[in-house]
Design goal:
The chain has about 210 residues and is mostly helical. It has 9 helices and no strands. The protein is about 80% helix and about 0% strand. The longest helix has about 60 residues. The radius of gyration is 28 Å and the shape is flat.
Length: about 210
């Protein structure tokens, strides 16, 4: 009697929650299969984009710049992996090599403000943007762009301080430049080669 009652309860439970349980199982299977398909697609996509990037590098190395830049531009416009951002950096480097500061600045600024790009690459783009626009953009604007990197825990802090000092020197604020350099040099976390560069810059001011 107890066994029959238990079966009846189980059947009632199943009738009541069958749709939810089956739906949950289907969802789990769907997510698992979807993840596998996505991983497979991502691997294939990454390999394809890697091949394109390598082809562009070789074309540029062998003097076929136009073809190389066309591939980089295609990757920058439509790539689904990190090669999108690496291609943008290549396009910016090419613009700089041709002294096209306006085009290089546009690419670098878009990249450094792209929240989808890896933070390290965004920081490199920011440093490159500021370093290559020192003679063209207002110092106040460049100082503002530099602020996100002026944190001693940032991997690019040494380079950022170097640029900050140069911007201050450009405005003839030598005492402020000496102060930021001295502070950075005194940090135990700063790499020795970065300290040496900052010391050299400090000696120029003194």
């Amino acid at each position: 009697m107890e066994e029959e009652l238990q079966k009846e309860r189980l059947m009632n439970f199943w009738k009541k929650y069958r749709a939810v349980i089956i739906g949950g199982i289907i969802l789990i299977i769907g997510v698992t299969v979807g993840n596998e398909i996505y991983r497979s697609w991502l691997t294939k996509t990454r390999l394809a984009e890697s091949d394109q990037f390598e082809q562009a590098v070789l074309l540029n190395y062998t003097g076929n710049e136009d073809q190389s830049m066309a591939i980089y531009q295609n990757l920058a416009d439509s790539a689904k992996t990190g090669y999108k951002y690496l291609a943008q950096m290549r396009l910016a480097q090419n613009a700089l090599s041709h002294n096209d500061m306006q085009q290089a600045g546009l690419i670098l600024k878009n990249l450094m403000n792209d929240s989808g790009a890896p933070i390290e690459l965004r920081n490199v783009a920011r440093l490159s943007f500021i370093g290559n626009q020192i003679d063209t953009l207002p110092t106040a604007e460049l100082q503002q762009e530099l602020q996100p990197l002026l944190n001693s825990s940032n991997a690019f802090y040494g380079s950022a301080v170097e640029l900050q000092a140069i911007l201050l020197m450009k405005e003839k604020k030598l005492s402020e430049a000496k102060e930021v350099l001295t502070k950075a040099i005194g940090l135990p976390t700063l790499a020795n080669d970065e300290k040496d560069r900052l010391k050299e810059l400090l000696s120029i001011i003194q």
